[in-house]
Amino acid sequence: MKTYSVLVISFLLFGITACNQPTKQEPVNEPATNENELAKTDVLLKDYGQEPVVLDIDAYTLSNNSFRTALWTGNNLQVTLMSIPVGGDIGLEQHLQTEQFLRIEDGKGTVMMGDSKDSFNFNQIVSKDFAVFVPAGKWHNIVNTGDKPLKIYSIYSPVEHPYGTVHQTQKEAEKAERH
After folding, report:
1. Residues above pLDDT 70, as percent of the chain
2. Half-sphere exposure of 39 (CA within 13 A, CB side)
């Protein structure tokens, strides 16, 4: 009971002292207050690195026209944006130690996964708002089967690509990954 009383008195004294101190106003990033403000998202496509950031992921994903753009690269997690041309694909790949989440923001495609690059026992048609979960070690690919670019954002854990990665085309990405 004594400890509780001492804590309450200390808290009250601290509160009175704090109230009498001049306060320094820190700048505050005010959130958008209506949908019109939210719609005015300025998109700057870059790797925001390990800094805290809040972005309209839909606006960023739809604005990206590169095959792959790293949007945020941390120590253990990475977000990339992808724009897959009509008839194109992300490329057959396998990440041995990395799990991947992909979200389709626009377009249509087919997801294929399997235990070997020659045999896909999982095939699924996907479109806007679908999420794809790729376990580590699975061979996978997504083919754009629609009539417009397939817009995707991808989350890797752990990080898959170097900080600041931007590949304008799939060919450029494949060349960079061979080195």
Report:
1. 75
2. 3
Dihedral of CA 47/150/143/125: which sign? positive
Q: pTM here?
A: 0.73
- Reported as a single tens digit per residue, the pLDDT across 111-148 is 999 999 999 999 999 999 999 999 999 999 999 999 99
Q: What are the φ and ψ backbone dihedral angles of 62, each rounded to 5 degrees? A: -70, -25
Do residues 111 and 122 make contact, with C-beta atoms less than 8 angstroms apart? yes
